[in-house]
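Submission sheet (multi-component)
Chains listed below:
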Amino acid sequence: MILVIAEQQQGKLNRASWEAIAAAQQLAAGAMPVKVAVAGQGLAGVAGELAQAAVAEVLTIDHAALATYTPDGFVQALQQVIAQVAPTYVFFSHTYQTRDFSPTLATRMDRALVTDVIAIRAVGGATAFARPMFQGKLVADVVPQGEGPFLVSIQIGAYRADTAAKGSAAAPITAAAVTIDESKIRQKPEAPFQEAKQAVDLSQAERIVSVGRGIKAVENIAIAEQLAKAFGAELAASRPICDNGWLPMERQIGSSGQTVAPKLYVALGISGAIQHLVGMKGSRTIVAINKDADAPIFEVADYGIQGDLFELVPAIIAELQKA
Amino acid sequence: MAERETLEVDILIVGGGPAGLSAALRLAQLQKQKGGEPLAIAVIEKARDAGTHQLSGALLDPSTLRDLIPDFAAKGAPLAAEVHQDNIYFLTAEKKLPLPITPPPFRNHGNYIISLNQFAKWLAAQVEAEGIDLFMGFPGQHVLFDDTAAPGAERRKVIGVRTGDRGIGKDGKPKGAFEPGADIHAKVTIFADGVRGHLTKELIQTLHLSATSEPAQFAIGIKELWDIPKDRLAPGTVIHTLGYPLRDEEFGGSWLYAMPEGRLSIGFVVGLDYQDPLFDPHAAFQHFKRHPFISGILGGGSIVRYGAKALPEGGWNTQPRLHFDGGVIVGDAANFVNSTRLKGIHLAMRSGMLAAEAAFDAVRAGDTSSTSLASYKALVDASAIKTELYPVRNVHQAFGAGTMAGGAYAGIAMFTNGKGLPDISGHPGHQAMQKIEDYYGMTKRDILVPSNAAPIDRRLTFDKVTGAHYSGTHHDEDQPVHLLVQTDVCHSICGPEYGHPCVRFCPASVYEMVDNGAGGLKLQINASNCVHCKTCDIMDPYGIITWVAPEGGEGPSYDGM
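Outcome: structure written.
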């Protein structure tokens, strides 16, 4: 059995949880059941959403001590639930939160943890988890050793959320009982930072319009903004734009910014330096507009238009407004 | 705001490379041999993990290693392959011409191909096993001088190092996680901060340590690690080339070192004394990879890592005064590299060992003055460092007259063991760069295109930004720029005079001239691309770039380099 740990914040499900469910369903291939657990407080809405998936059960780990995330609280709760459910694998999506607590959880359980997995395949009869090394230059097939359950975190964007199979009927929702010793929670979370409050989490965006140096001047950002509005997309940028202060740094995509995998990524005047590509190449459909036919962005684009964005973008906006 | 902490040790070693780590290990050995009250020893290193900022070819002459760790093989020293075949070629644009004999400095039997990153990591483990504290991710920010000396006193005593602050924002103001650097006070500080060490530079300026030395000479080495088909080069194969794509006026050449499993170290060295202001060393490396001989070796392979580092080339006569009140200088920081043999790791290690011996005795004797620490210089003069470097002391300087003339001089020096040859006085390399008008006459040129621009195919050849990615370099964007530049020079005379050469000599696209919105250009510093090679600090023709340490733990990630 595979237990997927979904992630939520204040009753809002992290979209990447669907990717972890998709990965679990593909590995299970109907031959083993998949269950989903989610921790927090006030989980009815999130659980209902998760119950649409073709899974055997949705477990809610509802506890006042889990209302705000702490690594110690989550490790205590998840360790108990994993012991109760006794799965073969535990899947997470490789979010910041997973990165924070999963090493502790694995160490506490003395079980193997394979992080940032991009594919699962059979290697010599064993199930191997492929994960990138050397900044994505090499991919290693990792076969976890020792006793299960094996803990696996799935890279965001490696599996598509919309391939997660939905069930014909809602899955049963069960409350998992856990006892949490609050005196063992060493972290005392404070109110989120001011900058975090304003931050845009581009990794949750379904559509992104991203601008690069080809936009030429700060006043031209408005053109990209209009296109983003027409698409219902978030606005993002490559590094030079944020360096210039034309857009805030939190909207930067790439190795020194955010990694995203939206359904649609429109790159306007972005040449496609490798630092940018690593932040968006997992996008489902990439549309690139660039004057330079040799720009590396065209190597990853599904649709490429060689041309002047100042002519093309208004034309696209006009078409979108017609529709 | 947090208080600045002070730490007291007997001996502080600044820099966790081969020199610093050898010093630390030798101190632990002396402690065991000589007994007595244990000395407090600390090593600080700016990289997050041991070896992460270490880059070299590298060929290791194991002579010092044998003396320092006689059972190095049993202790699992990571020596990738023993050299079993030496090749040296002169390249023309299309062909390779084997040299009739392999010149003695290029004979490498008995030497090992190593990854300096792995080697330093292993050395650090040996040091930690001796119970010495390695503080990783702590760059030295400034040298601490004893300012209690009488006013007007000429000599200033070094009392330690201040480490870098953490958590300063782009605007120079402390962020939420601000933590001031610590003052580490030591009776003796061993400066092992590497080629063009920024603390050693401060020492040289403040204490006039180079007053009687020849000007230091440097080169830039640009390296890539490749995976190529396993059967292409036998592990232990060493290839060096001279010639193409460099012209007679440029000093340099290449290396290819084959390791097991198809792993190949390939790199290109260019003297930082080239004349053409529009020349680009990185572009030269790309041309080199496109040479039929080289592309035949690399074809079908793929790049794994990229990096660059300056290297001291000036030799014996360029060493600064090695000792002063409260400290000594070792390794690359003291220019201990044999550029004719392309080797310095064993000399760095040797100087670290000798400095450890001098420092240990000085602390025990309760006298860490310059006079007491002069024993380090005496040990260096009586050691293999001098035996090896003195005969070839003028070779790099002779190359100032052109590759052919330099080669002839190197040959004579080799046969006579350097005896009877007059010292050649060199000029600082960056002074060799000519102004556009002088080099090109009045010809107008597009100053932002290198004179040796190379095609980029993203298979064999890569642009610098892609290189920066493969260096694994990382810096928090929200911190002060760690390259201090007097930009009024960039925005006034540098364009017309030299055409902004920083854009070309930087191997990681840190410097960019961008549209200033008023029809001109302005300098944009992409500090987070920096691979800590120090080339800009060395080569800028006006001497207006100063490299300082960024936040601790940041910089390249040279796994396997």
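Remark: Chain A touches chain B through 17 residues (CB under 8 Å).
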